[in-house]
Write a structure and sequence with these properties.
It contains eleven helices and eight strands. With 283 residues, the protein is an alpha/beta fold. It has a single domain, classed as Rossmann fold. The protein has an eight-stranded mixed beta sheet, sandwiched between helices. Helix 2 links the parallel strand 3 and strand 4. Helix 3 packs across helix 5 and helix 10 crosses helix 11. The longest helix has 20 residues.
Amino acid sequence: MAIHAGILSLLLALSVSIAVAAPKASAPRDIEYSRPAGVPLYMDASIPAGAGPFSAVIIVHGGGWVRGDRRIDVEPLFEPLESSGIAWFSIDYRLLRNLTELAAPVEDVRNAILFVKEHAAQYRIDPEKIVLIGESAGGQLVAMAALDPKPGARVQGVIAFYAPTDLVALAQDSTLIPAQLRDSVRGTPFEALLLGGLRQLSPIDRINPGAPPFLLVHGTTDDLVPFAQSQAMCDRLIANGSACQLLPIQGGGHGMRWWESSHPQEAREYKAVMVQWLRQELK
């Protein structure tokens, strides 16, 4: 009887020590991941409970490259990722003061990938199972970072929501750009310079063999970034031998937060498709 009691005490002690040692779910905030020109850039994270290593996503908010918030704009993504046991990191990046700086936030995304990979053990994630998620302008940024990665910063896939993938077409055709402004530069050397720079930063023109798989999600009545942009991007990826899935949000406009109230059924659908796609690509 004394032996049994001793064994029982030992097992209880072991179970307590294991429970104490097991990593808990964590939500670190304001993690500095880069400091370009002395300006700190931050990310927030959510790491599942358990030893891991976990699959992870890096989330990049939108806002036309000039505004946005890493917590508010992409908040609808957090719960479905957490419920699926997927770690997430949502980042800041340098916002633009003029179009000549458009390459800077792409570099920030690349640096965020490197940071997460270099700190994989600390955050209990698998550095070989990382996907980028971006919405609106953030979709352009993650696509560029994935299609033209830094050494050591390759990712396993991209999910882009209503992303401007052809900046030249957007500059030429968007009704948001006043006709008089477009006419003022037409035929000038500045027009050629501007369009050349936009082409270099257009994901549709950066696709090459070996590109990671893409999931594109886009509202069919988006009046800011036309649905046709995601259609053309997906077609180009497939033509180059890469995998692409396009999920239309029927009648949806521009913005996942708007979908939550205006298209709740479609919002639930895209979240389910997103999680299923991540599980497939990161299995």
